[in-house]
Amino acid sequence: MAQTLLKVAGLKVAYGGIQAVKGTDFEVREGELVSLIGSNGAGKTTTMKAITGSLPLAGGDIEFLGKSIKGQGPWDLVRQGLVMVPEGRGVFTRMSITENLLMGAYIRRDKAGVTSDVERVFTIFPRLRERKDQLAGTMSGGEQQMLAMGRALMSRPKLLLLDEPSMGLSPIMVDKVFEVVRDVYAQGVTILLVEQNASRALALADRGYVMESGLISMQGSGKDLLADPKVRAAYLGE
User: Fold this and answer.
1) Average pLDDT in the 132-156 region?
2) Does residue 24 belong to any structural domain of this protein?
């Protein structure tokens, strides 16, 4: 069995007096694409922020590569290979596409490798190559999503966390983003995908977890969850 990269055990996260995540357990193994689905407000993004050190834990633990990462900041985790593309993309709007990509490699010192990886990102995202000198803030939402994903790949992540990559995009760009997620995964990158588009997320996933009111309510293979009548009724409108 593949190594467990990420293990979340009894995770609790609170905002003020409200407990948004109430004791969640799940894991991601090396080489998997795991989807975490659920309705708006279920606690998915809060969970992602806790994993990446952006929110403190109220209880439980998170292990990455077999070691607890509780209390570590996002910058520490990037150095270890845990990288997130946040909801809303967060590109540097006044910097060019190329400069944004180089920011993704700020922890690296291998100049030749960085140059090679910029070329690799341009191969994955031809649209970025066409506009490499353009300011990121002048791009469409879909193009910014591609840039955010490309920037994350520049750090050579062991685990890539994607938080709502299709949010706010046109149907054509949604198709493109999911195509890119599939391609990145096919290149051997382990992915944890949080996504409201449950049908698309589960269709890609090896395994999936359903989150409701801060707890995992169901889990299984992506295929099994996609076929489950409860999941279809709640998240696929059937």
Assistant:
1) 93
2) no
Reported confidence tier of residue 238, pLDDT bands at 50, 70, 90: low
pTM given for the model: 0.93
Contact 231, 218 (CB under 8 A): yes
> Contact 63/7 with Cβ under 8 angstroms?
yes
Please name which of 126, 121, 130 lies closest in space to residue 149, comparing C-alpha atoms.
121
- CA 198 to chain CA centroid, Å, is 15
CA distances from 97 to 110, 151, 154, 206, 232 (A): 20, 9, 13, 32, 39
Tokens encoding 54 = 């952006």
Helix (H, G, I), strand (E, B) or coil at 107: coil
How many other CB atoms sit within 10 Å of the CB of residue 3? 10
- Amino acid identity, position 124: I
Instruction: Give the 3-state secondary structure of residue 102.
Output: helix
Position 49 scores a pLDDT of: 93
Tell me which residue range forms the domain holding 222. Answer: 32-38+73-229
Which residue did the predictor score with more confidence, 237 or 18? 18
The domain that holds 155 is classified in CATH as 3.40.50.300
CA distance 26 to 208: 10
What's the rounded Cα separation, in Å, for the pair 5 and 71? 18
**Distance between CA atoms of residues 34 and 131, nearest Å:** 32
171 belongs to a structural domain: yes
Q: How many domains does the chain have?
A: 1
Q: Which helix (H) or strand (E) holds 153?
A: helix 141-153
Q: Count how many Cα atoms sit within 13 Å of the Cα of residue 143 in the half-sphere of its side chain.
A: 19
Q: What is the 3-state secondary structure (H, E, C) of 193-214?
A: EECCCHHHHHHHCCEEEEEECC
